[in-house]
Amino acid sequence: MSERLEADYIIETAIDPRQAAEIMAGEQSSGTFVAVPGETEELKARSAAQVEAVEIYDTVTAPSLPGAATGERYARARVTLSWPLGNMGVSLPNAMTTVSGNLYELKPFSGLRLVDVRFPDAYAEAYPGPRFGVDGTRRLTGVTKGPVIGTIIKPSVGFSLTQTAERVTELIDGGVDFIKDDELQADGPHCPFDARVEAVMRAINDHADRTGKKVMVAFNLTGEVDEMRARHDLVLRHGGTCVMASVNSVGLGGLLALGRHTQLPIHAHRNGWGYLSRHPMLGWSFPAWAKFWRLAGADHLHVNGLQNKFCEGDDSVIAAAQSLLTPMFADKPCITMPVFSSGQSAVQAAETYRRMQTTDLIYAAGGGLVGHPDGIAAGVASLRQAWEAAEAGIPAETYARDHPALARALEAYA
Amino acid sequence: MSERLEADYIIETAIDPRQAAEIMAGEQSSGTFVAVPGETEELKARSAAQVEAVEIYDTVTAPSLPGAATGERYARARVTLSWPLGNMGVSLPNAMTTVSGNLYELKPFSGLRLVDVRFPDAYAEAYPGPRFGVDGTRRLTGVTKGPVIGTIIKPSVGFSLTQTAERVTELIDGGVDFIKDDELQADGPHCPFDARVEAVMRAINDHADRTGKKVMVAFNLTGEVDEMRARHDLVLRHGGTCVMASVNSVGLGGLLALGRHTQLPIHAHRNGWGYLSRHPMLGWSFPAWAKFWRLAGADHLHVNGLQNKFCEGDDSVIAAAQSLLTPMFADKPCITMPVFSSGQSAVQAAETYRRMQTTDLIYAAGGGLVGHPDGIAAGVASLRQAWEAAEAGIPAETYARDHPALARALEAYA
User: Fold this and answer.
1) How high is the mean pLDDT of chain B?
2) Same structural domain, A114 and A138
3) Helix axes of A247-261 and B225-237: crossing angle, nearest 10 degrees
4) Chain A residue closest in CA terms to B157
5) Are A247 and A176 members of one domain?
6) Which of residues 200-259 of A touch B (CB under 8 A)?
7) Does residue A348 belong to the interface with chain B, where contact is any CB pair within 8 Å?
8) B284 close to A (CB below 8 A)
9) Claim to verify: residue A300 and residue A385 sit in the same structural domain
10) H or E, element range at B58
11) By CB atoms within 10 Å of each CB, which of B90, B275, B338, B368 scores lowest?
């Protein structure tokens, strides 16, 4: 596959899934609901989407989604479609319209979910991809082994500038590698972006001058395109090493503009992901969705965490994280660093390592770090100890015997 | 309401809906999953989201979505939350994160859908809104009464430049007011954007010179921000009167950049809408979602059509269209012209008028116009006749007796 755009779906339909797949291909290329003049054989040969595969894997008796054509039973199938590059050209936004578009609304489908997408090689050349990824993030944070231990400024929103800078000072004194703004804190009047960068970077730079360790701060610059570019430049001028954007709020247009402009890692926040994914027979699976943001330049991307405070199961979290570490193209892997976050503490480190078999990730804890009963430094220590134990293959409870920060965390967050 | 951002949801939960609403408010403002230092009473007073209303309207015995905390029964409730403007400031992307964000993933919810949103007055001042809307579109098309009769270039994709220009010539000779690119046709190599604009505008301008009627063409400029700005300028230079963007593919960042730049009406295409809305207890309702694009500058927005080829029911289509014609602010109504499209023909005109009681809309037919058995001119005539009959309160079948184009359409598309 190098010249065609391909996408995999799971579908649920009361009609023959092969026929359903042909309807998908027609809707998303040269067909409409009646035959029209101009849809010649020559045009179809040039532009029609092709059904590459249809594999029925289940049959159910009730439809997953309302509104579809009904039947006695509904087949579930995995479908692969492909399109010639000539239809959408080399354009991420138009590729998105091509592989998703109106498909989710078509009458024969009581379920339709996009599970993967493969881009033609021309996309690898045309798009920036992550400029930093795992290696760049390790270089900028100085974390050569183990996960990058991160935290979120909490409360999410409401701090003044002074309070924010004070909290950041506490966090860096506590030994974190990485700090992010909450997605709810961008440029509100209590804590405006530009002044926050100045105040926070003063603390970060002072600490770096004293210790040689520059903590990475993901400043949430979510906003309009020109704002984001200007904010990026401000962070860069102050010696900052990361910017953050809520990708569903800025959209592909926003992230592409930032991705082409950036000289810093982009920390991509997926808030809103639930509305795209929460129903298992609707919307997007993470690996497909993430590839758009990876090509657009996301260096870090949130994947939730094990035993999280949300509805997502652990298997889905691991599949998402692994997908980010799987190359997209032979010559341009577009590796994006997974960010484990949401209800994380020392408790989940062992299982996360057991399943990921790598520490090429950001492990971010908010309450699970600053809420440690012995304070922030103990919170950070508990996370590092938990990961040391995991990498060494030592049960956390065993390692905790002579690592009191870990012991207290296991107790507090059990 | 002028200083707070408000949002209405329908939720489904096994816990007390009042408690569930407090969890929503906490997650989307100053709370996290454990108490953290810094979340003082003063901070909460400044920044906590408030639960404004909780109204239980139903109880069900099975959860709508998997993954949630379970119970014996699940209450459905309508919830209103509000946030101080100080949290997110005047920023559409950050308002989107605030009202949607992580809410859809929270454990206590087996259903959560955003049904409406009300912006503080400061948003009316800060954002462009539709620059043309209904009045501007009527002025530019010269359609002073009745709906703007539109069509889509079909086949959707695959035509060469010459074929596209020939088809446009046929459509304008047939008498249409409005033509749009299909959302699948943007800048593919068979029909690149810039050359298409030149070729199509030559036909449009020739016809305007001869007849005084300039047909509006919505050129699909979907792409990256700088591309879209440049393409807009090209359309303007060639005397074009409309541009089109797929809003879910360019995102708010994309549409805001275009909305601030544009000197032409923006035809906003909602493809992808199904993944945001198809499950009735998940995602977005149209009125809430549309307000973001209206503020960002959408002059036209697709609302599907009655008896469409998709899964959406007629009530939902009408509610969507009516929402666009309902003012957002007293001093800045942000009226966006609804575009009825998808399987439309003369057949649905009467019912559309009966329910809308206005002709301030674009009525777009693809196959239902060019597929008319007597050709394009008859297709256009059949639509105009169907709307004349509807406005005059004459049954279409009666009016068809001495209007053969309508008669043939009612027969062909029954």
Assistant:
1) 96
2) no
3) 90
4) A30
5) yes
6) 222-226, 228, 246, 248-257
7) no
8) yes
9) yes
10) strand B50-60
11) B90
In total, the C-beta contacts within 8 angstroms joining chain A to chain B are 356
Say if CB B373 and CB B412 are below 8 A apart. Answer: yes
Q: How far apart are CA A188 and CA A44, in angstroms?
A: 52
Residue of chain B whose alpha carbon sits nearest to that of A44: B158
Range of the domain at A338: 133-413
Chain A residues close to B109, C-beta within 8 Å? 311
Q: Which of A92, A126, A160 is the last residue of a domain?
A: A126
Chain segment A152-187, per-residue pLDDT in tens = 998 888 899 999 999 999 999 999 999 999 999 999
Is any Cβ of chain B less than 8 angstroms from the Cβ of A261? no
The reply to whether B266 and B354 lie within a common domain is yes
Segment A209-263, tens digit of pLDDT: 999 999 999 999 999 999 999 999 999 999 999 999 999 999 999 999 999 999 9
Q: What is the ipTM for the molecules in this complex?
A: 0.96
Q: Is A366 on the interface with B (CB under 8 A)?
A: yes
Burial status of residue A99 (CB atoms within 10 A of its CB: 0-12, 13-18, 19 or more): buried
Distance, in Å, from the CA atom of B371 to the CA atom of A367, rounded to the nearest integer, reads: 62
- Min Cα distance A144 → chain B (Å) is 30
Does A275 contact B276 at a Cβ distance shorter than 8 Å?
yes
- Take residue A187 and report the two structure tokens written for it: 């440029």
CATH of the domain at B80: 3.30.70.150
Based on the fold, state whether residues A95 and A209 are members of the same structural domain: no
Query: How many angstroms separate the CA atoms of B338 and A358, rounded?
Result: 51
Chain A hits for B409, Cβ within 8 Å: none
Is the minimum CB–CB distance between A353 and chain B shorter than 8 Å? no
Residues B118, B224 share a domain: no
Which chain B residues are Cβ-neighbours of A159 within 8 angstroms? 38, 43
Inform me whether the C-beta atom of residue A115 falls under 8 Å from chain B C-beta atoms: no
Query: Nearest by CB to B36, which of A47, A107, A154?
Result: A154
> Are residues A409 and A346 part of one domain?
yes
Closest residue, chain B, to A127 (C-alpha) = B224
Q: Which of B84, B106, B126 is the last residue of a domain?
A: B126
Residue A320, domain CATH:
3.20.20.110
Would you call B224 and A33 a contact, using CB atoms and an 8 Å cutoff? Answer: no
Same domain? For B329 and B265 the reply is: yes
pLDDT, tens digit, for every residue of A380-404? 999 999 999 999 999 999 999 999 9
Tokens representing B85?
């403007």
Mean pLDDT confidence for B143-172? 94
Q: pLDDT at position A35, please? A: 66
Report the candidate in A413, A353, A355 with the shortest Cα–Cα distance to residue A389. A353
> Among all chains, which residue has been given the structure tokens 């929402």?
B323
Would the CB atoms of B102 and A66 count as touching at under 8 Å? Answer: no
The pTM (predicted TM-score) of the whole model is 0.97
Integer Cα distance of B27 and B20 in angstroms: 11
Region B323-340 average pLDDT: 97
Give the pLDDT mean for A82-90: 95
Tokens 């036209």 identify what position? B300
- Chain A nearest-CA residue for B220: A94
Instruction: Round to whole Å and give the CA distance between A84 and B295.
Output: 36
Name the 3-class secondary structure at A24.
helix
pLDDT of residue A1: 42
Name the domain count of chain A: 2
- The three-point CA angle A80-A85-A90 to 5° equals 115
Q: Which residues of B touch A93 (CB under 8 A)?
A: 186, 222-224, 246, 249-250, 254
Q: Note the pLDDT of residue B36.
A: 67
pLDDT score of B122 more than 90: yes
CB of A343 within 8 Å of a chain B CB? The answer is: yes
